[in-house]
Amino acid sequence: MNEITIPRPNDLDAFWMPFSDNKYFKGTPRLLARAEGMHYFTPEGREVLDGTAGLWCCNAGHGRREITEAIQKQAAILDFAPTFQLGHPIAFEAAARVADLTPDGLDRVFFTNSGSESADTALKIALAYQKAIGQAQRVRLVGRERGYHGVGFGGMSVGGIGPNRKQFGAMLPYVDHLSATHLPDRNAFSKGQPEHGAFLAEEVEKLVALHGDTIAAVMVEPVAGSTGVLVPPVGYLEKLRELCSKYGILLIFDEVITGFGRIGNYFGSERLGVTPDIITMAKGLTNAAVPMGAVAVKNEVHDAIVTGVAGGIEFFHGYTYSGHPLASAAAIAAMEIHVREDLPGRVRAIEPYWEEAAHSLRAAPGVIDIRNHGLIAGIELQSTAGKPGDRAMRIFRRCFDDGLLVRVTGDIVALSPPLIIEKSHVDRIVTTLGDAIHKEAA
Ligand SMILES: Cc1ncc(COP(=O)(O)O)c(C=O)c1O
């Protein structure tokens, strides 16, 4: 291994950390300085097993040489060039590669820089499409309670997470929500897709009865990750698809987490057997080595917007860095790894072992539900009275100190390791987490 110098931060004040307890962190910093394969390393060189692929994003594992070299090479060839009224070859190549992996018929790709931008872009595409086909009255957007679509005003409004909204006053107008699919009384400890809950998709009909033909799109995560691993009940997504088609509503799947192999196919829609009209993605697209997101769109939706106008700009939207050369290079290299190493196949191969391992924590103190799908698992704990989230946060910190990175949301521990995980890593995750759950039982 090469000797590298790890900078030791001597001032933590300037960086206002996102979604963080800044005061706690800065009093007790936990830093990650280096990463390789399945592991992070602290500045002191202590190994931390990555149970979360960073933030659900380093799906091919850390420090992939192919990706690093592709970025370095591209930086030397073309650091940046605009994609407004101009183009550079590698952005077109990256888009074509994405289209190769998305479900058939979703072959048009709009680049963004994040999942949040992908969500807002998808919502704008849906509105522009409805207008283009003479349905300008369709201005309403429907999300789902406990949905997470990032932090832009569109994604935040259509998302269904109260704490993410409460500081910010007005949201987008004309937004409604379906109920969350979480039915703990009936589905607790389900393995894979839970049995009960398809009926919740029928709420689309209730919203149509209420709002008439003013709904442009329904956006959901196929498997909701950020609010604690909510797996769609059997038949739920099929019903959503059926009703959206019936009522002229576009169906958007936010695949920022489920994209790129996470649940055993390149996209979750393929694994779950339901094809939406629009797919958002980010994270695993570049293995998180350079920020990039994308929106894959059904050809008809694209064509209605693009070929439907005589000339000039067809879609008044885009980012300076849409299709950035370094991100495009990283995405191509990451997608090549996915295909060459059949990462979705690896997920399917290890999934039964993963499922059994996750559910082996059922008897641990305070565990009230375990959910899993693909290479995702959620372990829900009874909240400590009067202190929601406290127990899971203590478990998170103990795990980190014991050499395992997990993610917590409320009192749910979410696991989503890199897809290159081996059985021995799975064992270590379960042992370390189980131990932490026992020690933080109170
Ligand atoms: C489903 C989903 N959509 C959107 C986002 C937002 O992505 P980003 O943080 O890259 O903006 C996330 C992030 O976790 C996500 O899980």
Automatic annotation (TrEMBL):
<dbReference type="InterPro" id="IPR015424">
    <property type="entry name" value="PyrdxlP-dep_Trfase"/>
</dbReference>
<dbReference type="InterPro" id="IPR015421">
    <property type="entry name" value="PyrdxlP-dep_Trfase_major"/>
</dbReference>
<dbReference type="InterPro" id="IPR015422">
    <property type="entry name" value="PyrdxlP-dep_Trfase_small"/>
</dbReference>
<dbReference type="InterPro" id="IPR049704">
    <property type="entry name" value="Aminotrans_3_PPA_site"/>
</dbReference>
<protein>
    <submittedName>
        <fullName>Aspartate aminotransferase family protein</fullName>
    </submittedName>
</protein>
<keyword id="KW-0808">Transferase</keyword>
<keyword id="KW-0032">Aminotransferase</keyword>
<comment type="similarity">
    <text>Belongs to the class-III pyridoxal-phosphate-dependent aminotransferase family.</text>
</comment>
<dbReference type="GO" id="GO:0008483">
    <property type="term" value="F:transaminase activity"/>
</dbReference>
<dbReference type="Pfam" id="PF00202">
    <property type="entry name" value="Aminotran_3"/>
</dbReference>
<dbReference type="InterPro" id="IPR005814">
    <property type="entry name" value="Aminotrans_3"/>
</dbReference>
<keyword id="KW-0663">Pyridoxal phosphate</keyword>
